[in-house]
């Protein structure tokens, strides 16, 4: 995953490597103005609980320019996922190869992007959860 300049919800600068935390992660790139992004956010919240025993994090990277809208959205819908905001949305989207939203990246513990999914998805669906787990073979084998 490329080094990105991120901003935490409280306004502090965050390095993308620190945000990932050295663990495998599902990273959803989204925006409050993106209707499919808003629709899938609750299922990403449920996915986080389902993947926690596997040691896989679910993170959300907002490409909004209005940080207050991000905070208001998360409060309104009770989203507790770790969320950061891209310091430069256009640079982040270019660096990550994002051409449309939502886009979700599968990132290994080493920070390598293992794959991606473009478009809205029900992330808590059983078949989807199996698919996501299959993207992280090291995490799945640790659970056994």
Automatic annotation (TrEMBL):
Please provide the record's keywords in A-Z order.
Cytochrome c-type biogenesis, Disulfide bond, Redox-active center
* Coarse class of the protein's main subcellular location: other
Q: SUPFAM superfamilies, alphabetically?
A: Thioredoxin-like (SSF52833)
- Check the record and name the InterPro entries matching this protein: Redoxin, Thioredoxin-like_sf, Thioredoxin_CS, Thioredoxin_domain, Thioredoxin_ResA/DsbE_sf
Q: What is this protein called?
A: Redoxin family protein
Q: Which domain of life is it from?
A: Bacteria
Q: Which residues form the Thioredoxin domain?
A: 1-141
Subcellular localization, per the record? Cell envelope
One matching Pfam family: Redoxin
Q: Does the keyword Disulfide bond apply?
A: yes
Keyword field contains Transport? no
């Amino acid at each position: 995953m490329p080094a990105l300049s991120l901003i935490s919800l409280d306004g502090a600068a965050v390095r993308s490597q620190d945000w990932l935390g050295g663990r495998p992660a599902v990273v959803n790139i989204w925006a409050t103005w993106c209707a499919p992004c808003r629709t899938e956010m609750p299922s990403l919240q449920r996915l986080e609980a389902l993947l926690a025993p596997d040691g896989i994090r679910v993170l959300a990277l907002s490409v909004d320019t209005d940080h207050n809208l991000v905070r208001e959205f998360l409060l309104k819908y009770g989203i507790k996922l770790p969320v950061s905001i891209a310091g430069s949305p256009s640079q982040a989207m270019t660096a990550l190869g994002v051409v449309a939203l939502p886009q979700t990246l599968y990132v290994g513990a080493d920070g390598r992007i293992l794959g991606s999914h473009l478009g809205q998805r029900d992330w808590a669906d059983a078949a989807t959860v199996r698919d996501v787990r299959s993207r992280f073979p090291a995490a799945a084998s640790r659970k056994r």
